[in-house]
Amino acid sequence: MLLNSKGLALILAASIAIIIGASLLLIPELPDFVFWLVPIICFGTSYILINVVLEFLFFKELRNIYEMFEKIRNNDLTTLKPERSYGHSSLNQIQQEIYSYAHVKQSEIDELKQMAKFRRQFLADVSHELKTPIFAAQGFVHTLLDGAIDDKSIRMKFLRKAAKNLDGLDALVQDLLTVSHMEAGDITMQFEPTNICEVVEEIFDQLEDRAAKKSISLKLNNEGENKILVLADNQRIHQVFVNLISNAIKYSDEKGEVTVTLTPNNEKLDISVRDNGIGIPPEHLNRIFERFYRVDKSRSKAQGGTGLGLSIVKHIVEAHSSEIKVVSNVGQGSSFSFELELYQAR
Ligand SMILES: Nc1ncnc2c1ncn2[C@@H]1O[C@H](COP(=O)(O)OP(=O)(O)OP(=O)(O)O)[C@@H](O)[C@H]1O
Ligand SMILES: [Mg+2]
Fold first, then answer.
1. Staple partner for 289: which of 20, 56, 245, 314, CB 3.0–4.6 Å?
2. What is the reported pLDDT for 237?
3. Taking the CB of residue 209, how many other CB atoms lie within 10 A of it?
4. What is the CA radius of gyration of the chain?
5. Rounded CA separation 277/241 (Å)
6. Ligand 1 pocket by Cβ (under 6 Å)
7. SS3 state at 141
8. What DSSP designation does 270 have?
9. Is pLDDT of 302 > 80?
């Protein structure tokens, strides 16, 4: 191929040698060897110089750009690197532009792949979670239809079991709807002055029976205050406390203690829900807020858990411009904490 750096250098060097040779003819009385030696030297040096300049300033850059396009065409963006170059500045700039364009595209592709993976995983998890209570309820109803309905003692037992599974299914669907609305950003918070002491007391009343069954005591540590107003979405914050306190009861052994501590701290209220239960192994701590994640699947499932509670808590707390934190030691207990803005009456 003539139009590469060598071909161009050959043409230009030959032209220079011919022009110089022709010019020498105009100078009188030169020795004969000058007429061939000078053009040869000119040809050699021009060829080397032009070749080096073209190769390093243009052709190498063009080849790099071409290689980049090849990689983009083959979707091989991960191996694309910004080349350090000494070439022509506009070629260099084109190269950098291509690199940043490819970089943006690669991030978009990665994000789409990640989302597709999440969707597949979510669908698989949802189907799996729905299947269990549907299967169980279906089994009890069919057994009744196949004749068990005539046995009075079995009839009530099976109907209760079917109803329990259907209640679980209802709770799961509600949680799923909440999670998907929150993730889609469809839920707007209704911030209003909320007495957090009242919210906690209400939930203690609601969960009292469950705690009593395991002789677990529920304590509110509010430094004697029974009215602490925060700016929060009453219903959603209710949901946060129900999830955290019921987890604390669920994952504690008999005679445990669950304490909710409220500590005003400047314009914020520090809130913690602490238990002295089974604790969470450190390797699971940063995953428990993922939907459907359970440390001990069999224990959680036996208690009717689906692993959605903490992901809902995380979304709600974040929608209150806060962050949920957890500290836990296996065998000693766990503490979940976050903060809310104190309501300042104007
Ligand atoms: N206080 C706690 N002590 C020990 N482990 C906990 C505690 N809270 C949560 N976990 C662990 O984190 C996992 C996720 O909790 P999460 O509340 O999201 O789900 P769940 O309680 O299993 O089900 P759900 O809340 O949907 O009924 C639980 O399965 C449990 O293993
Ligand atoms: Mg839970």
1. 314
2. 96
3. 8
4. 38
5. 17
6. 175, 243, 247-248, 251, 275, 277-280, 288, 293-296, 300, 305-311, 334
7. helix
8. E
9. no
Find, among 93, 88, 2, the residue nearest to 53 by Cα. 88
Distance 296 CA to ligand 2 centre (A): 12
Structurally, the chain folds into a number of domains equal to 3
Which residues neighbour ligand 2 (ion) by CB within 5 Å?
Answer: 247, 309
Q: What pLDDT sits at residue 320?
A: 96
pLDDT digits (tens, 9 = 90+) for 309-321: 999 999 999 999 9
Helix (H) or strand (E) holding 236: helix 234-250
Kind of pairing, strands 257-265 and 325-329? Answer: unpaired
Task: Identify whether residues 63 and 22 lie together within a single domain.
Answer: yes
Strands 333-341 and 325-329: antiparallel
The phi and psi torsions of 118 (rounded to 5 degrees) equal -60, -45
C-alpha torsion sign, points 55, 60, 62, 67: positive
B/e letters for 307-338, b = 16+ CB within 10 Å, e = fewer, are: bbbbbbbbbbbebbebebebebeeeebbbbbb
266-289 pLDDT, tens per residue? 999 999 999 999 999 999 999 999
220: in domain: yes
Pocket test for ligand 1, best of 167, 175, 210, 247 (most atoms within 8 A of CB): 247
pLDDT digits (tens, 9 = 90+) for 66-82: 888 888 777 777 776 66
Question: In angstroms, rounded to a whole number, what is the distance separating the alpha carbons of residues 190 and 130?
Answer: 31
Give the CATH number of the domain where residue 126 resides. Answer: 1.10.287.130
CATH number of the domain bearing residue 217? 3.30.565.10
Most informative mutation of 172, 243, 300, 311 for ligand 1 (most atoms within 8 A of CB): 300
Report the atom number in ligand 1 closest to the C-alpha of 275: 1
**Total length of the chain:** 346
CA 251 to ligand 1 centroid distance, Å: 7
CA distances (Å), origin 342, targets 195, 223, 227, 262, 290? 10, 16, 11, 11, 28
